[in-house]
Specification:
This protein is α+β, with helices and mostly antiparallel strands. It has three domains: 1-63 and 329-360, Orthogonal Bundle (Hypothetical Oxidoreductase Yiak, Chain: A, domain 1); 68-183 and 229-328, Ribosomal Protein S8, Chain: A, domain 1 (2-Layer Sandwich); 185-227, Hypothetical oxidoreductase yiak, domain 3 (Wheat Germ Agglutinin (Isolectin 2), domain 1). It has ten helices and twelve strands.
Length: 360
């Protein structure tokens, strides 16, 4: 069997291919363009788990009726500094993009803006939307709830989702700072990788069906559950995300959320939350950026541990990789190439028309 290889692609060609695949699936031009921007940008940051490899699964949900190509979100309720958006199961990354833009407009008017979203599904990487605010000189927060796959202290089964949260802040001469994390101890992909290789895992990643820590990933996800990061601290953050994205918005809560990759026709009903802070209303923007640069440089200059060449700020590694990808192209891993190849077959789009050699 021929070993799968990575493929180098330009971000522009990859985006054009994704847009064509979405348009062929009945997605309107704007939703396709915004979704492609979200997913391709995520690939340039080398967060490949949440980039274009997820488009195939999203478009499958349109074919099964879990999402609607003709739907468009609407504001269900709002005030000067807040809004609740009903996504109506329209394309989640596009809905989320516009929802963060709405939060930024609210922030421009009031200094801070919150937008919660209900009746949605998988929106990709939380960090994209936080960074969107930072690109407009605002502090951004983005989060969503997901189907339960994580236990909590004292429980033995799945109670909470891994509920990701991200923030981003602009800087001056230095790169912006951003963090995008799940509230679980480790990404599920690492557990599945160990399972596939027949390897053991650290005992703080999973519990077994009795709620006891285990080093054996072979039964997950049918049995057992992920552990929250930092024990009760990750648990507490995951509950906060559940409150802001689901309890407050009217989205499904905990066990009411369905997995976006499940083989079902039931809607996912995830909730999202987007918060923007307009820095310039609280402090001159130049002063804020100078203070950010000073903080970043002090951290960079901290005495380094033995064997350490450099200290990075949150998001700095990914942003440097993005700079390279924008010039040299994105080196897509084999699993992403396989997913895109399957997508091309699903929707009947010739990837070679977009300078993509996805193989056979």
């Amino acid at each position: 069997m021929e070993q799968m290889k990575s493929v180098k692609v330009s971000p522009r060609d990859l985006a054009a291919f994704c847009i064509a695949a979405m348009r062929k699936s009945g997605i309107n031009e704007e939703d396709a363009r915004l979704t492609a921007e979200v997913l391709v940008t995520t690939d340039t940051l080398t967060t490949f788990t949440h980039g274009t490899r997820q488009l195939r699964g999203l478009l499958k949900n349109f074919r099964t009726g879990r999402l609607s190509a003709t739907a468009h979100e609407e504001i269900a309720a709002e005030g000067p500094a807040w809004a609740i958006v009903d996504a109506h199961y329209a394309m989640p990354p596009a809905v989320s993009y516009r929802s963060m833009e709405l939060a930024m407009r609210k922030a421009k008017a009031c200094g801070i803006g919150y937008v919660g979203v209900k009746h949605s599904s998988h929106y990709g990487a939380a960090g994209f939307y936080a960074n969107l605010a930072a690109q407009h000189d605002m502090f951004g927060l983005s989060m969503c709830n997901v189907d339960p796959c994580m236990t909590v202290p004292g429980a033995k089964g799945k109670v909470l989702g891994t509920n990701p949260i991200a923030y981003a802040a602009p800087a001056g001469a230095e790169k912006p700072i951003y963090l995008d994390i799940a509230t679980s101890a480790v990404a599920a992909t690492k557990i599945f990788s160990a399972k596939a290789l027949g390897k053991q895992i650290p005992d703080n990643w999973l519990v077994d069906e009795e709620g006891m820590p285990t080093t054996d990933p072979s039964q997950y996800p049918a049995k057992g559950a992920q552990l929250p990061m930092a024990a009760h601290k990750g648990y507490g953050l995951a509950v906060m995300v559940e409150i802001l994205t689901a309890v407050l918005t009217g989205a499904a809560i905990l066990s009411g959320v369905k997995s976006w990759v499940a083989d079902t026709t039931e809607p996912t009903d995830e909730g999202h939350a987007f918060i923007a802070i307009d820095i310039a209303q609280m402090m001159p923007l130049g002063e804020f950026k100078a203070r950010m640069d000073g903080m970043i440089r002090e951290i960079h200059a901290a005495p380094r541990a033995k064997g350490t060449d450099r200290i990075y700020l949150p998001g700095e590694i990914e942003l440097e990789k993005r700079d390279i990808a924008l010039v040299e192209g994105i080196a897509l891993p084999p699993d992403v190439v396989a997913s895109l190849r399957g997508l091309a077959e699903d929707v009947g789009v010739d990837a070679t028309q977009f300078n993509l050699n996805l193989g056979k």
